[in-house]
Write a structure and sequence with these properties.
The chain is mostly helical. It has one domain. The chain has 13 helices and no strands. Helix 2 runs antiparallel to helix 3. The longest helix is centred in the last third of the chain and has 33 residues. The radius of gyration is 19 Å and the shape is globular.
Length: about 260
C-alpha cells in the first residue's frame, strides 16, 4: 500500500463519533437556530469527526506517536475552542458551576490534559485499548473546554481580563514547550506501544519505507508537534488578547490590569 491508497482507503468508521457530532449539532440548532456564529459549531463538529475518523485516527491507533500527539492538540485546542466561539452572547454559565471554574483550575485542566495522557502508563493504555482511548477523548474535550472557557466564554463578564489572559496563555505555552522538549530529546520510552505496532491495517511497510519513520524519529516529531504548533496557537491567542486589550475602553483596561 502506498501513501495515496492509505489516505483514500483507511478511514476509521466510528458510529459513536458520528452520533456525538450529530447530537451536538441538533442540540445547538434546536436552542439557537442558524445565526452568525453557527459556522463555528459546524467547524467544531467537522474537526471532531476528522480527528477521530480520518487516516490520522488510523495512524494514532497504535502506529505513530506523532499522530497521537496531533490528535491531542486538535481535541484540546481546536474542537472546544470552535464550540465555545459558536455560543451566542446570551449564554451564561450557572453561577454554581462558574465558581468551580477558577482560572487556576482551568489552566491546570488545559496543561494537565497534555501532561497526564503522555504519562507512559496512560499513553500505552490509550494506544492499546479503545475503551481507554474513548475515556481519553472525552477527558481531552472537557479539559480543553475548561481551559478555553476563561478566554472564550460567550459573556464578556465571565472572561479573564486581557492582561491576565495573556499571562495565562504564555504560562500554558511554557508548560507545553517543556513537555515538547522532554518528548523530543528523551529516549524512546514515553509510549512503547508505538515501537512494535500490531499491523492490523497492513501499513507498517508504508510507514517505515515510504515515510522513513523509526521509533526515535516518530517520538521526536511528536515532541516537535507538541512544542511548535501548540505554542503557535497560544501565540495567536495572545495577539488576540492584545487586540482585545487595545480595543477596550481605558477604564476597563485599567480595571483588569
Amino acid at each position: 500500500m502506498n501513501l495515496t491508497q492509505f489516505l483514500i482507503s483507511d478511514w476509521v468508521w466510528s458510529p459513536l463519533a458520528v452520533f456525538c457530532a450529530v447530537a451536538g449539532l441538533i442540540t445547538y440548532f434546536r436552542y439557537f437556530g442558524w445565526n452568525e456564529r453557527a459556522g463555528w459549531i459546524v467547524a467544531s463538529a467537522t474537526v471532531f469527526l476528522l480527528t477521530l475518523m480520518s487516516p490520522l485516527a488510523a495512524l494514532a491507533e497504535g502506529y505513530l506517536f506523532c499522530a497521537h500527539t496531533a490528535q491531542h492538540i486538535l481535541l484540546v485546542l481546536v474542537v472546544p475552542a470552535f464550540a465555545l466561539l459558536a455560543l451566542p452572547d446570551s449564554v451564561r454559565m450557572p453561577a454554581r458551576i462558574a465558581r468551580l471554574l477558577h482560572p487556576a483550575v482551568c489552566w491546570a485542566c488545559g496543561v494537565g490534559a497534555m501532561w497526564l495522557w503522555h504519562a507512559p502508563l496512560l499513553c500505552n493504555a490509550a494506544a492499546e485499548s479503545r475503551s481507554v482511548s474513548a475515556v481519553q477523548t472525552i477527558s481531552l474535550l472537557i479539559m480543553g473546554g475548561a481551559f478555553w472557557w476563561q478566554l472564550l466564554a460567550p459573556s464578556e463578564s465571565q472572561r479573564m481580563g486581557p492582561l491576565h489572559a495573556m499571562a495565562y496563555l504564555f504560562a500554558a505555552c511554557v508548560a507545553c514547550t517543556v513537555l515538547g522538549i522532554i518528548l523530543t530529546f528523551s529516549p524512546v520510552t514515553i509510549c512503547k506501544a508505538y515501537l512494535h505496532p500490531v499491523d492490523r491495517l497492513g501499513i507498517e511497510g508504508m510507514i517505515q519505507g515510504n515515510l522513513g519513520m523509526t521509533g526515535m524519529r516518530d517520538q521526536q516529531i511528536g515532541g516537535l508537534i507538541m512544542w511548535v504548533p501548540m505554542c503557535l496557537v497560544y501565540l495567536g491567542s495572545i495577539f488576540g488578547q492584545l487586540a482585545r486589550w487595545y480595543a477596550a475602553p481605558a477604564e476597563t483596561t485599567l480595571s483588569v490590569s
